[in-house]
Amino acid sequence: MARNAGQTPAGSRSGSANRSKPPTMRQVAAKAGVSVKTVSRVMNRDPAVKESTRESVLEAARALGYRPNAPARALVTGRSKTLGLLISDIENYFFAGLVRGVQTAAEERNYSLLLCNTDENPDTEIRSVDLLLGHMVDGLVMSSSRLQDDQVSRVADSVGMVLINRFHPDPRVLTTSIDAEAVHLAAEHLVALGHRSIGYIGGPIRSRAAWLREEGCRKVLAKHKMREPLVATGFPVSIEGGYSAMNWLLDVDSGITGVVCWNDMLAIGAMRAVQARGLRIPDDVSIVGFDDIHFSAHANPPLTTVSVPIHRLGYEAAILLIDATEAEGTPIKSRSTVQCHLVTRGSTGPVS
Fold it and tell me: Are the CB atoms for 197 and 203 separated by under 8 Å?
């Protein structure tokens, strides 16, 4: 007899019903010849478990295709062994090193990592926080956060957190940052080379770190009784943005001989703009970047920059957060600082 379309033979099951149930912790315990509690300790990476027992349980889990149920484990233990990381611009090379640093620390301490990109948008950042909290993360690392102080405190009501390069008045909010005086290295370098007409290409307009870095440059020039820098701000934080910002600076003041940039991508764009005008680097214009991303040394000419230990910055942030998560009332430090240094290359020289 012909069957109607979509009709299944008697006794057969639909595709979803055909799927076998995932193996349980009890089945793993039976196969490994241990208790369910021992399997749980192995899955939670209890260091007190004998290595031979651990291998036996893991081998049984692999054979059965068992995977721990992270949400269920979090409900039982109160911890998911997972961190959330929010970055503001995944296309910015700075964040590649930062993510690797956080991941290195997480793996060392047996944590997993969930990553969200916020595109410099506070609304996206809030949604990302909600998403990560929904996955029951044990804590958040937030780099270049665009949230207001009261919003950050509300997040801290729900989960432990570390801000990178931003201090917060709430004592619950931890901070990992670079040396606050780091930008002074760039400005002092240009002053020491004899530059007296200096420009500054700024970072994101909603970034407190960008504002503080600009202020640092102003303070150096004021200390040497020089005029304030001509500031180009509001341009995209990219190579293209640096190109446009540098052209704006030179259109406003063609006598500028030295430029400090918020980061290396802006600096590389600025160098291209100078060269496109037929000017020479560093003979006509000296340019200093910030971060020391990998290909700064391979720019033409190689870029002088303030070198930030980016990997260490991310690593320190994650360790600070994990220590706080596992402290259980034990006093811990709330801040960590990493030092920067100037790397002098071919993009800067004495004023002509």
Answer: no
Predicted TM-score (pTM) of the model is 0.76
239: CB partners within 8 A, 6+ apart:
265, 266, 268, 269, 272
Q: Tell me how far apart the terminal alpha carbons of the chain are, to the nearest angstrom.
A: 96
Tens-digit pLDDT profile for residues 176-186: 999 878 889 99
Q: Which domains does the chain have, with CATH numbers?
A: 22-68 (1.10.260.40), 79-179+310-338 (3.40.50.2300), 182-308 (3.40.50.2300)
Give me the long-range contacts of 125-131 (CB less than 8 A, separation at least 24): 125/86, 125/88, 126/151, 128/86, 129/84, 129/86, 129/155
Phi and psi (nearest 5°) for 181?
A: -90, 5
Q: What is the pLDDT at residue 9? A: 44
E strand or H helix at 125: helix 122-134
- Between 204 and 275, residue with greater pLDDT: 275
Q: Six-digit token pair at 18? A: 């055909």
For the segment 29-55, what is each residue's pLDDT rounded down to a tens digit?
998 999 988 888 887 777 788 888 988
